[in-house]
Amino acid sequence: MKRPDAVVERVLATLAILIIGVISLGNVVVRYITGGSFAFTEEFSVFLLVLLTFAGASVALRTHRHIRIGLLERAVPARVRPIFIIAQGLCGVVLLGLITWFGGRMAWQEYQWQSLSPGLGLPQWWYLVWLPVLSVLMLFRQCQLTLARLRGDFADDA
């Protein structure tokens, strides 16, 4: 049996969904018993959902399960498909490169400004630093996927 790829992202996504479930359940129980709720759950849940989204998207990229439009690619002759694959890969690399660049700048600015989160007063960059880190992982997975598709490892399933 082949070992799953994108292990780092799979572990991050699993931990994120597990922690969201635990803190949400804990919040429901506390609210039911006391009528109040934990203050940190919303801030952490939003952060963990973003982390889960990027980690899941990275896994989807690596396994060629990302939402895509393959109609045009399937309509062209087989000898032209590599051009479409390269164009798709380049578009993904440009987009993820921009997300990495601007996400990194945003996290750096929040670090320099010493901004605090509105809910708990934690440094805002603690949440934002994950954006460029995970987009770099996605960028790497995009390159892996493009090369694998050019080798013919993934068929474009209709």
Automatic annotation (TrEMBL):
GO terms for biological process: C4-dicarboxylate transport. InterPro entries: DctQ (IPR055348), TRAP_DctQ (IPR007387). Keywords: Cell inner membrane, Cell membrane, Membrane, Transmembrane, Transmembrane helix, Transport. One of its GO terms (cellular component) is plasma membrane. Coiled coil: none annotated. This is TRAP transporter small permease protein. Belongs to the TRAP transporter small permease family. Part of the tripartite ATP-independent periplasmic (TRAP) transport system. One of its GO terms (molecular function) is transmembrane transporter activity. It is found in: Cell inner membrane. It holds the Pfam family DctQ. Residues 22-150 form the Tripartite ATP-independent periplasmic transporters DctQ component domain. It is a multi-pass membrane protein. The chain crosses the membrane at residues 12-32, 44-61, 82-104, 124-141. The complex comprises the extracytoplasmic solute receptor protein and the two transmembrane proteins.
